[in-house]
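Retro notes
What went well: the complex prediction finally ran end to end.
Inputs used:
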Amino acid sequence: MAKKNNSRTNNSTPQREMNSTDQKTMAALTGLADQIVSAAERGRAPHLDIPSRSLSNVRYNSSKRFIEMGSGKNRRELFNLSQAKSYMQTVLVSSGCKQLIEEDKSTSIRGLYYLLKHTIEGAREETFDDQSDCDPVIEDVEVTLNTLREELHVYASNRGSMVGNITLIDSGDEIDCSRMGSGGYSIPSIVEPEVVEFHKCDAKFVLHVEKDTVWRRFNEDKFWRKHDCILTHGGGQPPRGVRRLLHRLNHELQLPVYCLLDNDPWGYYIYSVLKQGSINLAYESRRMAVPNARYVGLRSKDYERCGLSPSVTINLSETDIKRAKQIASYPWFEKKKPWQKEIEQMLKNGFKLEVEALISKNISYVTEEYVPARLNDQDFLD
Amino acid sequence: MAKKNNSRTNNSTPQREMNSTDQKTMAALTGLADQIVSAAERGRAPHLDIPSRSLSNVRYNSSKRFIEMGSGKNRRELFNLSQAKSYMQTVLVSSGCKQLIEEDKSTSIRGLYYLLKHTIEGAREETFDDQSDCDPVIEDVEVTLNTLREELHVYASNRGSMVGNITLIDSGDEIDCSRMGSGGYSIPSIVEPEVVEFHKCDAKFVLHVEKDTVWRRFNEDKFWRKHDCILTHGGGQPPRGVRRLLHRLNHELQLPVYCLLDNDPWGYYIYSVLKQGSINLAYESRRMAVPNARYVGLRSKDYERCGLSPSVTINLSETDIKRAKQIASYPWFEKKKPWQKEIEQMLKNGFKLEVEALISKNISYVTEEYVPARLNDQDFLD
């Protein structure tokens, strides 16, 4: 039956043949441990230098065109009453990830929390009080070791589907995304090259749509077949797996990525994260951002251009107005006149427009007229 | 380019070859319209009799073992000031669904709302003020015509994935669920036999797990291959498509359905809805409930039985306690002693247990020991 691996006593796990990513991550993890041992042997107080994830250490790199972290670091010391616990937690999470890689298994952030949660021997203290205690430590380890969470064998929830003219090898299975029916291929959380390999691709571009319901319209109309493309969605703000996959499709296969999003601050923000990365996860931009992404979503001028009815507009709320102004002042939007004009026009309109509103023209207007016209005229925002 | 179908003038749409479900639904829709015409011709005030969806018209049918609607109906009249608008909305939604079926297209409830929303000619009145105005009317039409939303070509959002020893035909594509890699087949919202056909099935049962993260553990460990089964999840409370698919797998292929859910009121509730249907959507139980489903989720006795650490327990909140008592008093749980004992024990424990907590034993404990032991001992709740 099951291997009897206790989470705290896994020294006996036999070494498996590791792929190169796992070898690299493992080296980083053991490097971290070696530092501690060597500090102890030299009679020095062990410490970890954790890159700072605070706002002040995040900046927009205009040549790379994404948000990245600065070089600021915070020292975390074992022999410091206020830091000892988080020091210990950092080492504990690292050892949990080491165990996952050794066993060639992966788990969710919740799973890792449960794997490591226990009462500290001889004390009444818990390693973690709850998951919110553990999650930031996972991010600390990611950033300290310069790895992605997925490389540490920890996954986020998966959401998002894909169809189109591409064949993948996922965990050894050949997945032909042009033969996936109405449901599509469910984009997993971990899409690193060791798990998901691009096998054959005839697509000329990727159309990423915001919502699964809009994605379904495009799939039903076999848009991807007519236009030779790949069709993805991320169920709103796309999860890590979808972002990483779009990054890989763009960087490895040189496929342009077009984003069909709503004409509202939330749509703008999704675009911003897809393209430049997010402030919270700035250390991941390098592997997730798609600086060449293009916005083919609804535009503030579409009310007039498409002759939409006032019935399908939605009035901007106070929050919408505030968010829109914030987004307009992002350094990466600030100097782009078309974006400034776009946001200004939305504020002037006083309303937002969802992609679904185009259905008031006719059911397939979005797949048969709107998007083809935008692509044909190269009419998108950068 | 696009067919020029305006949503309000679609009389010219050529008739397509319809499958039998579409023919049936179409007959129900035109039957509704014919009633109105005939009332008008006889100089009578047109009305609709809408089955009542109120709590008082819902009951548990202990021989069918699911929640169903009673025979109560509400009359909706055109020549009644307080009912005229909702009468008109009901007819409008019916005509929108007719258009969808005629064009062989489907849309989301949001799409249908946009399709039908407009200012009424010669008035300042909108057909619908917002979507919450339209959604209950869709349910009215479903229940009046005795159809499922999916048969009206309206879909919910899709969530949930599947892998295992089954091959489907989805919209003409053959989907071999045993070769779907780490991502799996994304379960669509519409899984009616006209869209999703069961082609070949070697599986002996279905294991439905609550969360995608747990599903992934089972998929990584290829549980479905070892145990010859189908593995599904519904991302929490399963959406309509997942429920309907489980119903079909159970009723058409006679596969037992086992549900791996958390030992908490939410897990119990998910089980209750999967098995007996929900109060809100009682009219759908007949097509969605799985009265033979079995609970193999975490049990209140597992804290002791599995030797779990107090670290992984989560204290019950006030809301949890209230919900647990409510669930214990459901007519379909009320007379089941094992369920009463189960809920009583949880309340006595004072804590709940998530499936992920088993990872504290070891990463694959749930796939290699827990579930195999439950299945082997036929140790589940009914």
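What we learned: Chain B touches chain A through 76 residues (CB under 8 Å).
What to try next: split runs per interface for comparison.
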